[in-house]
Amino acid sequence: MRHLIVLTVAVVAATLGCGFGVTAIAAGSGDDGGPPGDTIVAVTGDAANGFEIQHYDGTSLYPPTDSEARAECGEYDKRIDRVRCRVEVRTWYRDLADLQQALDWAHAP
Questions:
Q1: What is the tally of helices (H) and strands (E) in the chain?
Q2: Which first-to-last residue range defines the signal peptide (predicted)?
């Protein structure tokens, strides 16, 4: 049951992660019989201080903090583009926190 939950979370992460270059492939398996190397296995941190996204192959990603990402949204010329960017940032960090909570639950004994 836990593997199914982790698989579901990985699919959600793959769907949501495209905006910041984060991907997770949930189907298939790696050479060692485990999941593919870019499968997300842990998320630590928070939006204010920054997240760390850890992958099965040992690599990690460090997306910008919430405030850094929102500041970059201010660089768009058109107001609609700035608003769209802020909504994407807010959604991304909300979903990243949900992924963190789901992974913590799935890894619990």
A1: 3, 3
A2: 1-26
- Residue 47 CB neighbour total at 10 angstroms: 20
> What is the pLDDT confidence band of residue 25, given thresholds at 50, 70 and 90?
very low
Helical (H) or strand (E) element with 82 = helix 79-107
pLDDT in tens, 56-77: 999 999 999 989 998 999 999 9
Could you give the CA distance from residue 66 to residue 57 in angstroms, rounded to a whole number?
26
* Two structure tokens written together for 66: 């919430």
> 74 by DSSP, 3-state: which?
coil
Q: Which residues contact 106 (CB under 8 A, 6 or more apart)?
A: 2, 5, 6, 9
Other residues' Cβ atoms within 10 Å of the Cβ of residue 22: 21
Q: Give the position of tokens 């608003």.
A: 83
Under 8 Å between Cβ of 18 and 92: no
* CB-CB contact of 53 with 60 (8 Å): yes
Range list of β-strands (E), 1-109: 40-46, 50-55, 60-61
